[in-house]
Write a structure and sequence with these properties.
The complex is a heterodimer of chains A (about 60) and B (about 220). Chain A has about 60 residues and is mainly alpha-helical. Helix content of chain A is about 35%, strand content about 5%. Chain A is built from two helices and one strand, in the order ααβ. Chain A has helices spanning about 20-25, 30-45, and one strand at about 55. Chain B is mainly α. Chain B has three domains: about 1-30, no CATH class; about 35-160; about 160-220, no CATH class. Chain B has helices at about 35-60, 65-90, 95-125, 130-155, 175-180, 215-220; strands at about 15, 20-25, 30, 165, 185, 205-210. In chain B, β1 (about 15) and β2 form a beta hairpin. The radius of gyration of chain B is 19 Å and the shape is globular. The model of chain B has no long low-confidence stretch (mean pLDDT about 90). The chains are: A mainly alpha (about 60), B mainly alpha (about 220). Chains A and B meet through α1, α2 and β1 of A and β1, α1, α2 and α3 of B. β1 of chain A pairs parallel with β1 of chain B.
Chain lengths: ~60, ~220
């Protein structure tokens, strides 16, 4: 029987990220937005899959 | 107030009314309930939680390294919080550069927590067991706080709202949340953010907003 302990990936060190690097990483890029759009579409209830594709609309004047 | 009813199914079924800060179902011309928007977000947060759980279980089981886990978590946090921010602000088209900057700052806060989490795993201070899974789950749940913060920002800066109050969600309530809700209407931006209570990211409270003089009697009666 294979020993699971032998197949463990070494934990290793965490990413060494400076404050400046975290600042950079936290910025939302167009690529991030495209991924988030797909994530919402694929995981929101079907009725609301297109909710975030909403455009601003103006209300109509009451006659 | 009426809104045009849309029949073109090639575009989104929804619109956004900037004056009210509400989505509109263009097929019916009716506002989309806040509860429905939040429920939709909950589904997205749940999906994020599953990914975070799988990722963290892989780390606990020794299938991936700490750096791989951290990298995956950074991506997943940004994904969930980006979608959450946009849902609060009326959708992708309504997000301004300033809004993206605000979303980035909220993500940055999560990244600080995540760096600390990773360092504690490396040092052994955070054990790689069920507690790590529970702690990791909080990063997806934190997207709920991002939704409320982005909405609060919108209500204050663009919708002219002056007062806010905490509304208890459908969950067990921590003493902090009970206290904050009992404070009733307060100047906008003064009540602690969602996630700043002892229940942390498990918080299901929301904010309500009002302009003008709040009805203190109503507030005190609730």
């Amino acid at each position: 029987m294979p020993d699971p302990a032998k197949n463990r990936v070494p934990l290793g060190r965490p990413l060494q990220l400076t404050d400046e690097q975290l600042d950079q990483l936290a910025q939302v890029t167009p690529e991030d937005i495209e991924k988030a759009k797909a994530f919402w579409r694929n995981n929101a209830p079907p009725k609301f899959a297109s909710l975030l594709d909403a455009q601003t609309i103006e209300e109509e004047e009451e006659q | 107030m009426t809104f045009p009813i849309q029949t073109n199914v090639l575009t989104s079924r929804y619109g956004w009314n900037e004056a009210t800060g509400r989505y509109i179902d263009l097929r019916t011309g009716q506002f989309v309930r806040f509860a429905d928007v939040r429920d939709a977000l909950e589904s997205v947060i749940d999906a994020s939680a599953i990914r975070i759980n799988v990722l963290t279980k892989s780390l606990v089981d020794g299938q991936i390294s700490l750096a791989e886990w951290q990298s995956g978590m950074l991506e997943q946090v940004k994904l969930a919080h980006t979608a959450s921010a946009a849902s609060a602000r009326g959708g992708w088209a309504q997000m301004s550069q300033s809004d993206w900057g605000a979303a980035g700052r909220l993500i940055r806060t999560q990244y600080d927590f995540l760096r600390n989490f990773s360092d504690q795993i490396a040092s052994g201070e955070q054990l790689l067991n069920g507690t790590a899974l529970v702690r990791a789950d909080m990063y997806g749940d934190a997207a709920r706080g991002t939704f409320e913060e982005m909405r609060r920002r919108y209500e204050r800066t663009m919708n002219g709202m002056e007062f806010e109050r905490r509304v208890l969600g459908e969950a067990d309530h921590c003493p902090d949340c009970l206290d904050y809700a009992a404070e009733g209407w307060q100047p906008i931006g003064t009540l602690p953010a969602i996630g700043d209570s002892i229940c942390l990211t498990n918080c299901h409270c929301t904010f309500e907003y009002q302009t003008g003089t709040p009805d203190i009697e109503e507030s005190e009666a609730e």
